[in-house]
Amino acid sequence: MMLALFLPLFLLFLMIGLPVFFGLVAAPGILLWLNGQERDMVLLYRNVYNGMDSFPLMAIPFFMLAGELMNRGGITMRLVEFAQAMMGHLRGGLAHVNILSSMLFAGLSGSAVADTSALGSMLIPAMEKQGYSRRFAAAITAASSVIGPIIPPSGIMIIYAYVMGESVAALFLAGIVPGILVGIGLMIMVKVLADRYDFPVATRRHNWTERGQASLKAFFPLLTPLIILGGILGGVFTPTEAAAVAVAYALFIGLFVLRTLTFRELPDVLGRAGITSAVVLLLVGAAMAFKTVVSLSHAPEMMASIILGLSDNPLILLFLINLLLFIVGMFLDAGPAIIILGPILGPIFTAMGVDPVHFAIIMSVNLTVGLATPPMGLVLFVASSVANERIERISRAILPFLAVEIAVIFLITYVPAISLTVPRLAGFLN
User: Fold this and answer.
1) Which tens digits make up the pLDDT trace of 291-335?
2) Residue 143 belongs to what domain range?
């Protein structure tokens, strides 16, 4: 019974400011020691390494390196110019450009943090010059950046597939329509706010010749997600190999085609991607070790009995689980949350008839939106740093966009076809 206290102890460590990695390792370690299970303590810390020692997880550092190469090679700017040519003439044009750029950038990096830092450093100052408040510019950047881990490639979906034994390709395909829905929802909210507060128009309407030129400049970056998904679905390479192909493609385009990247910049690019990847993989390793104690403590069985005791109606339980995941997402990064809660919640809802891929998308989208949710959302801190604006002010400005994202989450939850149609058409589901 003592081992069941690992989760409250972990939350206590988070509240006093202990880094997530150390909390994930220390909380179960202390309880195993107090319970006299020294042998299990050895297993716990061995699993930190074993949790990272996985071929499928190699996709994460490769995708992060690809995103870093494209960002350093000026490819992000070409995506922004393309988005501006298409949508800059609308009222609230730069806000629309911000959202569309996030949707396009999602197909390159799959990282909300990379999206916020790369696009925010360009678009937040530009929006401020056009008369938007800094807090609004930071808020729309943070809100739209959560599309990054939903539209493939997605780091958190790779983690979910690794932990739960699902198909990475099926999860990638299932994330396409939900990601587009989030983007469209945010654009509708921007239109409502633009009409109400008379937001400025970013540029004149571009003619089709100018749009064609912008499309040509963005052609090679926009080809990246097609190469990744096309290769995976065509059986040319695995998702992990696709990540390596994305790196090779980004390197080739940056060095030899666009010539916006130099060999002298590569050590810094590799260093930045290495540090970011190390943080993610350490969290994955610690969370996998944490999962060991979850199984030893019989917490999944206890949680299942509690959840099933609340109601036997799957629709009500899905509503309650969405609330739980949303709260968890406020405090815990999406990767560790998936590794901790996926093995507990996934089997319960699968047994109730919820498709495993559908539940994976519900969980992934919900926890991803948590990245932009006050008080502890990670991309809020990044947006605050990029915009040099206080988190409290950004948090108030982001509330209308969070309301849209929550509405999309419930739409995804109660209309499974939104997530499942594309993978079903591709032959990944019956």
Assistant:
1) 776 666 666 666 667 777 777 788 888 998 888 888 787 777 788
2) 54-425
